[in-house]
Amino acid sequence: MNKKDLYRPNVAMIVVTNNYPAKKEIFLAQRNDLRDVWQFPQGGIDDGEEVKEALFRELEEEIGTNDVEIICEYPEWISYDFPSKIAKNMKPYIGQKQKYFLVKLNKNAKINIKTKYPEFSDYKFVGVEDILNLSANFKKDVYTRVINYFNNEGLF
Questions:
Q1: pLDDT tens digit string along 33-79?
Q2: How many Cβ atoms from other residues are within 10 Å of residue 35's Cβ?
Protein backbone atom coordinates (compact mmCIF):
# COMPACT_ATOMS: atom_id res chain seq x y z
CA MET A 1 0.00 0.00 0.00
CA ASN A 2 1.54 3.32 -0.98
CA LYS A 3 1.28 6.42 1.19
CA LYS A 4 -1.60 8.02 -0.74
CA ASP A 5 -3.68 4.89 -0.14
CA LEU A 6 -3.27 5.41 3.61
CA TYR A 7 -5.60 8.42 3.49
CA ARG A 8 -9.31 7.62 3.65
CA PRO A 9 -11.36 9.38 0.93
CA ASN A 10 -13.80 11.72 2.63
CA VAL A 11 -16.25 14.48 1.80
CA ALA A 12 -16.84 17.48 4.09
CA MET A 13 -19.55 20.11 3.97
CA ILE A 14 -19.65 23.67 5.21
CA VAL A 15 -23.37 24.19 5.65
CA VAL A 16 -24.88 27.68 5.73
CA THR A 17 -28.47 28.62 6.53
CA ASN A 18 -31.05 29.51 3.93
CA ASN A 19 -30.45 33.16 4.91
CA TYR A 20 -27.12 33.03 3.08
CA PRO A 21 -25.59 35.25 1.69
CA ALA A 22 -27.41 37.97 3.65
CA LYS A 23 -26.32 36.19 6.86
CA LYS A 24 -23.27 33.99 6.95
CA GLU A 25 -24.30 31.51 9.65
CA ILE A 26 -22.26 28.30 9.51
CA PHE A 27 -23.30 24.93 10.93
CA LEU A 28 -20.99 23.29 13.47
CA ALA A 29 -21.80 20.10 15.34
CA GLN A 30 -20.37 18.74 18.57
CA ARG A 31 -19.13 15.18 18.25
CA ASN A 32 -20.67 12.76 20.69
CA ASP A 33 -17.47 10.72 21.04
CA LEU A 34 -14.95 13.54 21.66
CA ARG A 35 -15.56 16.16 24.34
CA ASP A 36 -15.78 19.75 23.19
CA VAL A 37 -14.90 18.92 19.59
CA TRP A 38 -17.00 20.77 17.03
CA GLN A 39 -16.78 20.11 13.33
CA PHE A 40 -18.39 20.31 9.92
CA PRO A 41 -20.40 17.31 8.75
CA GLN A 42 -18.14 14.87 6.93
CA GLY A 43 -17.85 11.22 6.07
CA GLY A 44 -16.16 8.53 4.09
CA ILE A 45 -16.72 8.00 0.40
CA ASP A 46 -17.73 4.40 -0.30
CA ASP A 47 -16.02 2.35 -3.01
CA GLY A 48 -17.57 3.21 -6.36
CA GLU A 49 -19.46 6.18 -4.96
CA GLU A 50 -19.19 9.60 -6.59
CA VAL A 51 -18.11 12.47 -4.34
CA LYS A 52 -21.42 14.34 -4.67
CA GLU A 53 -23.37 11.14 -3.97
CA ALA A 54 -21.37 10.80 -0.74
CA LEU A 55 -22.05 14.44 0.09
CA PHE A 56 -25.83 13.98 0.00
CA ARG A 57 -25.71 10.58 1.74
CA GLU A 58 -23.49 11.85 4.55
CA LEU A 59 -25.63 14.93 5.13
CA GLU A 60 -28.71 12.74 5.46
CA GLU A 61 -26.88 10.31 7.79
CA GLU A 62 -25.33 13.00 9.99
CA ILE A 63 -27.76 15.92 10.12
CA GLY A 64 -30.99 14.30 8.95
CA THR A 65 -31.35 16.27 5.73
CA ASN A 66 -29.75 16.49 2.33
CA ASP A 67 -32.07 19.29 1.24
CA VAL A 68 -29.24 21.60 0.18
CA GLU A 69 -27.90 23.51 -2.78
CA ILE A 70 -24.19 23.24 -3.60
CA ILE A 71 -22.73 26.74 -3.78
CA CYS A 72 -19.06 26.01 -4.32
CA GLU A 73 -16.52 23.17 -4.34
CA TYR A 74 -13.00 23.55 -2.99
CA PRO A 75 -10.80 22.84 -6.04
CA GLU A 76 -8.38 20.36 -4.43
CA TRP A 77 -8.28 17.40 -2.09
CA ILE A 78 -6.87 18.28 1.34
CA SER A 79 -5.19 15.70 3.56
CA TYR A 80 -4.58 15.55 7.28
CA ASP A 81 -3.23 12.94 9.67
CA PHE A 82 -5.29 11.49 12.48
CA PRO A 83 -4.07 12.13 16.04
CA SER A 84 -2.72 8.92 17.58
CA LYS A 85 -5.80 8.35 19.80
CA ILE A 86 -8.04 8.37 16.71
CA ALA A 87 -5.61 6.62 14.34
CA LYS A 88 -5.68 3.36 16.32
CA ASN A 89 -9.41 3.01 15.52
CA MET A 90 -9.05 3.91 11.83
CA LYS A 91 -6.61 1.26 10.61
CA PRO A 92 -5.29 0.90 7.93
CA TYR A 93 -5.67 4.67 7.43
CA ILE A 94 -3.32 7.27 8.91
CA GLY A 95 -5.52 10.21 7.93
CA GLN A 96 -8.11 11.49 5.53
CA LYS A 97 -8.08 13.19 2.17
CA GLN A 98 -11.10 15.42 1.93
CA LYS A 99 -13.10 17.19 -0.72
CA TYR A 100 -14.88 20.25 0.68
CA PHE A 101 -18.13 21.84 -0.44
CA LEU A 102 -19.99 24.95 0.62
CA VAL A 103 -23.70 24.10 0.71
CA LYS A 104 -26.80 26.12 1.55
CA LEU A 105 -29.79 24.66 3.35
CA ASN A 106 -32.94 24.99 1.27
CA LYS A 107 -35.81 27.00 2.75
CA ASN A 108 -37.78 24.07 4.20
CA ALA A 109 -34.82 21.90 5.23
CA LYS A 110 -35.04 20.55 8.78
CA ILE A 111 -31.92 19.51 10.68
CA ASN A 112 -32.25 16.46 12.91
CA ILE A 113 -29.04 15.16 14.50
CA LYS A 114 -30.92 12.32 16.21
CA THR A 115 -30.32 10.08 13.21
CA LYS A 116 -30.17 6.26 13.08
CA TYR A 117 -26.49 6.31 14.16
CA PRO A 118 -26.00 9.74 15.79
CA GLU A 119 -22.54 11.24 15.49
CA PHE A 120 -23.37 14.57 17.09
CA SER A 121 -24.77 15.57 20.47
CA ASP A 122 -25.43 19.22 19.67
CA TYR A 123 -25.19 21.79 16.91
CA LYS A 124 -25.23 25.51 16.41
CA PHE A 125 -24.75 28.13 13.74
CA VAL A 126 -21.76 30.40 14.18
CA GLY A 127 -19.95 33.17 12.38
CA VAL A 128 -16.88 32.30 10.35
CA GLU A 129 -14.72 33.99 13.02
CA ASP A 130 -15.82 31.41 15.62
CA ILE A 131 -15.04 28.23 13.69
CA LEU A 132 -11.35 27.90 14.50
CA ASN A 133 -11.92 28.56 18.21
CA LEU A 134 -14.35 25.62 18.41
CA SER A 135 -12.73 23.10 16.09
CA ALA A 136 -10.26 20.33 16.93
CA ASN A 137 -6.58 21.29 16.77
CA PHE A 138 -5.76 18.63 14.19
CA LYS A 139 -8.34 20.12 11.79
CA LYS A 140 -7.45 23.80 12.19
CA ASP A 141 -4.98 23.91 9.28
CA VAL A 142 -7.50 22.30 6.91
CA TYR A 143 -10.34 24.50 8.13
CA THR A 144 -8.15 27.60 7.74
CA ARG A 145 -7.27 26.73 4.14
CA VAL A 146 -10.85 26.05 3.15
CA ILE A 147 -12.28 29.10 4.94
CA ASN A 148 -9.61 31.34 3.41
CA TYR A 149 -10.37 29.98 -0.05
CA PHE A 150 -14.12 30.59 0.26
CA ASN A 151 -13.41 34.01 1.77
CA ASN A 152 -11.09 34.92 -1.11
CA GLU A 153 -13.83 33.81 -3.52
CA GLY A 154 -16.13 36.38 -1.85
CA LEU A 155 -18.34 33.71 -0.29
CA PHE A 156 -17.75 34.62 3.38
A1: 877 889 999 999 999 999 999 999 999 999 999 999 999 999 999 99
A2: 8
CATH code: domain 3-152 is: 3.90.79.10
Of residues 102 and 35, the one with the higher pLDDT is 102
Buried residues in 1-14 as b, exposed as e (16+ CB within 10 A)? eeeeeebbbbbbbb
Q: SS3 sequence, the chain? A: CCHHHHEEEEEEEEEECCCCCCCCCEEEEEECCCCCCEECCEEECCCCCCHHHHHHHHHHHHHCCCCEEEEEECCCCEEEECCHHHHCCCCCCCEEEEEEEEEEECCCCCCCCCCCCCCEEEEEEECHHHHHHHECHHHHHHHHHHHHHHHHCCCC
Residue 1: what pLDDT?
A: 58
Q: How far is CA 39 from CA 11, 35, 108, in A?
A: 13, 12, 23
Domain ranges of the chain: 3-152
